[in-house]
Every structure is written in structure tokens, then in C-alpha cells.
Specification:
Helix content of chain B: 25-40%
Helix content of chain A: 25-40%
Structural class of chain A: alpha/beta
Strand order of the largest sheet of chain A: 7-11-6-1-4-5-12
Order of helices and strands of chain B: EEEHEHEHEHEEEEEEEEHEHEHEEH
Distance between the termini of chain B: 56 Å
Bound molecules: flavin-adenine dinucleotide, adenosine monophosphate
Order of helices and strands of chain A: EEEHEHEHEHEEEEEHHEEEH
Oligomer: heterodimer
Shape of chain A: globular
Number of helices of chain B: 8
Radius of gyration of chain B: 22 Å
Strand content of chain B: 25-35%
Strand content of chain A: 25-35%
Structural class of chain B: alpha/beta
């Protein structure tokens, strides 16, 4: 079975975000980079699938040279080979064009299934899976909190507001991973895994290697652009309700404030 | 004539979900700024009888597909129909809910009609020259960005629930109805099961009040005291990752950067320290109350009202006070 996982490298979730002087990007100096947590869930899903059905897991990403670290980590977790799409040719590409390049790289692996995180913890768009599926004309099972696959069909559970849907699709299909650490519990890279990863294949592809025309990826082709970024207004610390009151007194005071000052209850 | 603004509705269990009314109200506001009309695309089972009511929120006309095959959302059935309708309508902008299904629909629709979607929009401005800009929160709300679309590309936006005002323009206004004749595609994906929670539990992402418990709750059974309080307040119960990882609460209750991002009027954090990943998920609540026995817990730097107390004595006291309030 050919399994493809698509990952993105994102800033660590601890990162304090600062806006760069051009006002259109975040300040990236000094950032610690991680694999997008939802993409880590997808890697875990892929490795479990391989354990069950056998096959090969390819991990694909797009981005700067630093993304090699994320791919090596994925290889150390147990993926078999990696592809990095060189970003130099596609500066400021918008979501849809990035996914075109990712789709082209995935296609080369002739996948039976593609797994990807439901959203990235940087731009928080949650679009990649659906766009990729449309570009490939594949079924898309979105926001999986469980996945069962027998090599012919794949079944997932998808939480929706106030309920849960169970979906089934024939392969080839694309699954986006939702849920949380508690559900997927992605494995850590072991020390032997890290050693082995150094020898696993990692290739860097340019757009032309993928049969794409770099002219379609220049900044002027973007259909959407960020015009400015801003930090949200800082919340100021409010009041600590104390006044030497006991728990009951504080509760009474809080209810009064919520009722009369905040007017929220 | 200027091109209309178009919304895509969400219909489930015989009703438009509330976020649809929010999207319609925002759509009306944008249409008014552009001096144009507002149309809606409504897919669902049983939707034709309800569609006229969208007129109350300022929708002029609704294109309706009412069929048992559209009872539950499936991208492969909905997206081709909606894409064809949108192409025919040739709208100035398309708005839809950033709900679970709306997010999926919007992204796939965008890919199909070659328009880039902006997901999870919290503010839209229409310039004097009629250009539309939209704002969304990144990094789980640690930062905001404004976006605009290239010339000739109609903005496609999903609107975060609970942010836009519902605005009834006229209680008696009825929308005009036009049936959709596009055939319903046969999907490869099958819905095996659809379990709806009928307990009347308030959905986290749409709740006006959330009572959330963290590691300080100590064990699963202690959440009973939060549920009592939540019941009285009509609130939803949330949790920190520590509580979810401990198996005390389902993952669907997790608030934060790898959980749900919520924006209720009131968020009551109980036994939660206020880690950056948690704050990212609830920092935009209108009011935050923190209850923690550690006066130095970081959550207090974000809270409008803080109480340094043991939660096990404070929460029952609070519940009692709320009960008194509700009784009078
Ligand atoms: C990649 C990544 C993603 C993450 N995503 C999320 C996320 O989405 N959501 C999230 O919440 N976290 C997330 N985290 C985890 C986060 O960093 C914290 O570990 C977590 O939020 C801590 O939960 P907590 O506040 O309940 O627990 P703790 O930090 O242990 O805090 C418990 C608090 O309860 C107080 N307390 C204890 N007993 C009592 C009592 N009897 N009365 C009153 N107060 C009491 C303590 O003083 C303490 O402040 C993520 C972490 C990573 C690395
Ligand atoms: N290495 C990458 N892998 C996947 N997506 C990427 C990558 N780099 C940038 N992106 C873009 O980031 C966008 C936001 O991701 P998401 O929140 O999942 O929609 C995606 O739509 C991609 O176009």
C-alpha cells in the first residue's frame, strides 16, 4: 500500500507571536519549529496503517531548507522516504497553489491513501485536505477522530456540532486528521529511529521536476493576499475579588458583578 | 446591475442553524454597502418550507434544493451543485458558516471554482471603492491578519460562528424561492451512521457561556459540580488538554490551540493554569472569570474577575448564588 502523508512545519505552539516590520508576516527569527501537531496525528495514522497492511509511507512537505528537520523527524518516527518541494520558486504562493504543488508531488508516489492534518496551527485555515481532494478528484474524509482501513475502503468518525458522523469511502481517498493528542497519541522518534532516518531517502524537488510551470507560481498570480497583520488588543488583568470575604461572600460578589457590571448572566 | 452577494446556508434537523442567520445578517450588511441584493443557496431535506423565513434577515431570494439525499452534508453531493449555482449567480462575494461542514464545503468549493477561500473570518469591511477586506485570527488568535482578493476574484469567506450580530430587518419579510434544478451527484463517500446528540447539550463553539475545568478538577467524577453550574447558566462545559489527556473529558471538549477556539460572552476557567495554548483558544471571550487556588497562576493576567479559592468549596457556593438569582 502506498501511503502519503503531507506535513507542514509550523512555529512551536509556545511561540509568542510578533509581527515583522513589513506588517505582512510574523517575525520568524528565534522561532522554534515543530511539525504541525495535526500533521503529527496524520503521521501516527500512517504508521499504524503501515503496521497493519504493510507498504510504504512517503512524507511530503513544502517550504524552506529548515523544513528538512521536520521531514527527518517524520522519517525518525518511522516514515520511509521524504520529499521536500523547494520553496524558492514559489515565494508568497497562496494556499491553493501550494496545494497544487503538494498534489503533484503526491501523485508521483501513486498513493492509495493520503493523510494530512485537518488544520495548521499557524494560518489556521483548515483548507489543505479539501483542496487537495478536489484537485485530485478524490473522496475526502475530513476531521477524522478514528480511522479503519482494510486496503479497499476507509472508514472514519467525524465529530460535527452536537454529534458524530461515520463515513466510508473507497480508496484512493484522502483523510484529514482532527482530534487531539489524547486520541492519536503520536509516537516520539526513538534514538535508533533517529539514526536510521539519516540514511533514508530525502529528495528535494523543484516545480519543473513536478511538471509544473514556475510562471504559474509568481507572487502576481496570487488570488488572495495579506495586506496587514496586527496583534490583538491586550487584555488587561481585571480585578481579584477578595475583600476578606469567604468563598460564599466571593461567590455572591462575583454573581453581582456578572449580573450588574458585565451583564452576561 | 451590480452583482449580488450570495450566502450558503446550513440546515440540519429541520432548522437553519443559528450561524446561518449570522451569515445572512452579515451578507445583508455587505450587500447594502455595495448597493446590491442578497441571495442564498439552501440545500437540505425539508428546507423548502423554511427558506422563505430567511427574508427576515434580509435575504431577497433563495435557491432551494430539497431532497432526502441532502439530509446530511457530504462534500461530493453538495459542492458540485453549489459550484454550479455560484457560477450562474456570478456573485460579488460568497459567505458561508465556518462550521464543521461549512469549512469543508468552502475549501472544496473554492478549489472547484478557482477562488481562494478565507476561513474563519471575524470582520469584513467594504471600502468606498467597493473592495472587500476580511480579517481572521491566526495562531489560534495570537495574531490577526487582513486579506484582500485579487482583482476580479470574488471574495469567498467562511464566517466564524458567534461573532457577527443576527439582525432581523423585518419579522414579516419573506424571501422569494426558486428551486434548484441541478441534478444531485452520486457520491463515492457513504454516510454509515449519523449520531446526533439529542440531550440538548450546548455546543462548545456556539455557547454563550462556557464553564471549563482543568487539571485542578482532580478526577472525572468531579465535573458534576461544573455540570450543575453549567446547567443553571445554560452553559457548555469545556476542558483543558490536561483534563482531556487524563481521560476525564472527551476530546471534543478541549479548548485551545489543538482544541476548539471559542468566543463566548463568558468563560469561567476552573482549575486551569492558563498555558499559552489554552489562552489561544479562549482569549477572545468577552468576559473571563478565573478560579484558581494559586494566586500566581497566569490565567489571572487575562481574567476580568479572578477568585483565589479552592474550587471545591467555591464552585458549590457559586452554584448556590446563581440558583438564588435564577429563582428570583
Ligand atoms: C502542541 C501542544 C498543543 C497544546 N494544545 C492545548 C490545547 O489545545 N488546550 C489546552 O488547554 N492545552 C494545550 N496544551 C497544553 C498546555 O501547554 C498545558 O499543559 C495545559 O493547558 C494545562 O492544563 P491545566 O491548566 O488544566 O493544567 P495545569 O497547568 O496543571 O493547571 C492546573 C491548575 O489548577 C489549579 N488547581 C489545582 N487544584 C485546585 C483546586 N482545588 N482549586 C483551585 N485551583 C486548583 C492549579 O493551581 C493550576 O493552576 C498544548 C501543549 C502542546 C505542547
Ligand atoms: N509544507 C506545507 N504543507 C502543507 N501546506 C502548506 C505547507 N506550506 C504551506 N502550506 C499552506 O498553508 C495553508 C494553511 O494550511 P491549513 O490550515 O491546513 O489549510 C495550506 O492551505 C497550504 O497551502
Amino acid at each position: 500500500m502506498n501511503i502519503v502523508v503531507i506535513i507542514k512545519q509550523t512555529p512551536d505552539t509556545e511561540t509568542v507571536i510578533k509581527v515583522a516590520p513589513n506588517n505582512k508576516q510574523i517575525e520568524t527569527s528565534g522561532i522554534k519549529w515543530i511539525i504541525n501537531p495535526y500533521d503529527e496525528f496524520a503521521i501516527e495514522g500512517a504508521l499504524r496503517l503501515k503496521q497493519k497492511l504493510g507498504g510504504n509511507v512517503t512524507v511530503i512537505s513544502y517550504g524552506a531548507q529548515r523544513v528538512v528537520d521536520a521531514l527527518r523527524t517524520a522519517l525518525a518516527m518511522g516514515c520511509d522516504d521524504a520529499v521536500l518541494i523547494d520553496d524558492a520558486e514559489m515565494k508568497n504562493a497562496d494556499f491553493m497553489r501550494v496545494t497544487r504543488a503538494l498534489a503533484a508531488a503526491a501523485r508521483e508516489k501513486n498513493p492509495d491513501i493520503i493523510l494530512i492534518g485537518s488544520r495548521t496551527v499557524d494560518y489556521d485555515q483548515g483548507q489543505r485536505g479539501a483542496i487537495l481532494a478536489e484537485q485530485l478528484d478524490w473522496p475526502h474524509l475530513a476531521l477524522a477522530v478514528s480511522m479503519e482501513c482494510d486496503g479497499t475502503n476507509v472508514v472514519i468518525e467525524r465529530p460535527v456540532e452536537g454529534g458524530k458522523v461515520t463515513l466510508e469511502a473507497p480508496l484512493p481517498a484522502l483523510v484529514t486528521f482532527g482530534g487531539s493528542h489524547a486520541i492519536w497519541n503520536p509516537r516520539y522518534a526513538s534514538l535508533p529511529g533517529i539514526m536510521k532516518a539519516k540514511k533514508k531517502p530525502l529528495v528535494i524537488k523543484k516545480l519543473t521536476d513536478l511538471g509544473l510551470d514556475p510562471a504559474d507560481f509568481t507572487p502576481d498570480k496570487a488570488r488572495i493576499r495579506i495586506t496587514s497583520m496586527e496583534l490583538p488588543p491586550q487584555r488587561k488583568a481585571g480585578k481579584i475579588i477578595d475583600g476578606g470575604l469567604d468563598a460564599h461572600g466571593k461567590a455572591r460578589e462575583l454573581v453581582k458583578l456578572l449580573r450588574e457590571e458585565a451583564r452576561v448572566i | 446591475m451590480a452583482r449580488n452577494v450570495c450566502i450558503i446556508t446550513e440546515f440540519r434537523n429541520g432548522e437553519f442553524r443559528r450561524v446561518t442567520n449570522e451569515v445572512a445578517s452579515e451578507g445583508r450588511r455587505i450587500a447594502d454597502s455595495l448597493g446590491t441584493g442578497l441571495v442564498a443557496i439552501a440545500l437540505g431535506h425539508g428546507v423548502s418550507g423554511k427558506a422563505v423565513d430567511l427574508g427576515r434577515f434580509g435575504v431577497d431570494k433563495v435557491y432551494v434544493a430539497d431532497d432526502p439525499a441532502l439530509e446530511y452534508y457530504l462534500a461530493e453531493t453538495s459542492v458540485p451543485i453549489i459550484a454550479e449555482m455560484v457560477s450562474g449567480i456570478d456573485p460579488a462575494a460568497v459567505l458561508l458558516p465556518a462550521s464543521v461542514d461549512g469549512r469543508d464545503l468552502g475549501a472544496r468549493l473554492g478549489a472547484r471554482i478557482h477562488v481562494t477561500l478565507l476561513q474563519d473570518v471575524i470582520e469584513v469591511v467594504v471600502g468606498d471603492d467597493h473592495t472587500i477586506k476580511a480579517k481572521w485570527p491566526l495562531f489560534a488568535g495570537k495574531c490577526f491578519a487582513w486579506c484582500e482578493w485579487a482583482e476580479g476574484v470574488p471574495p469567498l469567506l467562511s464566517i466564524r460562528p458567534n461573532v457577527m450580530q443576527c439582525n432581523i430587518v423585518d419579522e414579516n419579510r419573506k424571501a422569494e424561492i426558486e428551486p434548484i434544478t441541478v441534478p444531485i451527484p452520486v457520491p463515492r463517500t457513504k454516510i454509515v451512521k449519523y449520531d446526533l446528540d439529542t440531550s440538548g447539550k450546548v455546543e462548545l463553539s456556539e455557547a454563550e457561556i462556557i464553564v471549563s475545568g482543568g487539571r485542578g478538577m482532580k478526577e472525572a467524577s468531579n465535573y458534576g459540580i461544573l455540570e450543575d453550574l453549567a446547567g443553571l447558566l445554560g452553559a457548555a462545559v469545556g476542558a483543558s488538554r490536561a483534563a482531556v489527556d487524563s481521560g476525564w473529558r472527551p476530546h471534543s471538549d478541549q479548548v485551545g490551540q489543538t482544541g476548539k477556539v471559542v468566543n463566548p460572552n463568558l468563560y469561567i476557567a476552573v482549575g486551569i493554569s492558563g498555558a499559552i495554548q489554552h489562552l489561544a483558544g479562549m482569549g477572545y471571550s468577552k468576559y473571563i472569570v478565573a478560579i484558581n487556588k494559586d494566586a500566581d497562576a497566569p490565567i489571572f493576567t487575562k481574567a476580568d474577575y479572578g477568585i483565589v479559592e479552592d474550587l471545591f468549596s467555591f464552585i458549590p457556593a457559586l452554584t448556590e448564588e446563581v440558583r438564588k438569582l435564577k429563582e428570583c
